[in-house]
Amino acid sequence: MNERILLYVSLFALLAIPHSASAADPTDTTVVATVGDDPIEASEVKQLMDLIPVARRPTGDLLAMAQAQMLEEIVNRRLVVAYAQRSGDAPSAEALAKAKKQLQLRLSAQGRKAPNGQAEQAADAELDRQVLWRLIWDRYLAKYRTPERRKAWFQSHHRDVDGTELVVSHILLRPDSTAGPKDLEALEKQAAAIRAEITSGKTEFAQAAAKYSGGPSGKQGGRLGKIGRHGPMDEAFSRAAFELEKGQISPPIRSPFGIHLICCDEVVPGSKQISEVAAAIDDALAQELLTRIAGIEREKTAVKYTEAWPHFKPGTQELAK
């Protein structure tokens, strides 16, 4: 698999797409997680997965990660709703009924029809859920996305959105196809030892890459060239790389390809101003708020996962086995 891989989709942007009035295929009612007493069925996650354009749909090692991330975002939505209900921020029954009627009229004008029988009931329940979420979320976003917060985010994270590029090298320790959690932990320890050799001056990064790296770039001293914040590398790699300054080496980073050590060889500054990246900043603030509220509510509302769908270990981006 190619070392340089395009991030397949912005999951938060995907979740912002309004769904159809009809529910996801109601035939798959397998429960994949519960938030409090509220179940999440496989059909709901599959519906969102189907929104990913075919050309960008992940396969192989990335598929399970994408499925787990999508489920996590849905769980976070449920937690935000639970937080609003617990905090007295939920909309009134009258506001819900009005918003639902308005959405039904818009969908009808678009020629969309609700299915019959059991599917119709499922569609109506899904519509109720969407309306409740949208009213709660729009209210929270309106309060959170202030000019001051946008400016502060840009000052702290401008490299993520202003077109900054990094010239990077890496060392990749590849696991065997049958590797388990203990094997990955052993590779992380090996990577940490290699990093210590480099930072202590015993060896240079390029020499270590030529000796240890299992990636094609090892022959070039680990040199990968320029990368952007949102491609072409895997998100875990890019996120870690953009935390580095010139000359710094990352701690061991886990990706679908193995364990990486990343060296920032050069920073090529971007030139985009805050007005040019307003949409990206708003998306980032929305994800920040979602994660923040969901984290608070997890202390009050239990989240349980089943084995019917890929999911992360609690508090990590590591797949549960």
Detailed description of the structure:
- With 321 residues, the chain is an alpha+beta fold.
- It has 2 domains: 11-148 and 278-305, Orthogonal Bundle (Triger factor/SurA peptide-binding fold), CATH 1.10.4030; 165-268, Chitinase A, domain 3 (Roll).
- The chain contains 10 helices and 7 strands.
- Strands 4-3-6-5 form a 4-stranded antiparallel β-sheet, with helices on both faces. Strands 2-1-7 form a 3-stranded antiparallel β-sheet.
- β5 (253-255) and β6 (258-268) form a beta hairpin.
- The protein is globular, with a radius of gyration of 22 Å.
- Residues 1-24 have low confidence and may be disordered.
> Which H/E pattern describes the elements?
HEEHHHHHEHHEHEEHE
* Extended strand count: 7
Q: Just name the CATH architecture of the largest domain.
A: Orthogonal Bundle
CATH class descriptor name of the largest domain: Mainly Alpha
Number of domains: 2
Provide the spatial order of strands within the biggest beta sheet: 4-3-6-5
Oligomer: single chain
**N→C terminal distance:** 22 Å
CATH fold node name of the largest domain: Triger factor/SurA peptide-binding fold
Low-confidence stretches: 1-24
Q: Determine the mean pLDDT.
A: 86
Strand content: 5-15%
State the shape.
globular
Name the helicity range: 40-55%
Main sheet: strands, sense, barrel: 4 strands, antiparallel
- Individual helix count: 10
- Which structural class should the secondary elements be placed in? alpha+beta
Based on CA atoms alone, the radius of gyration comes out at 22 Å
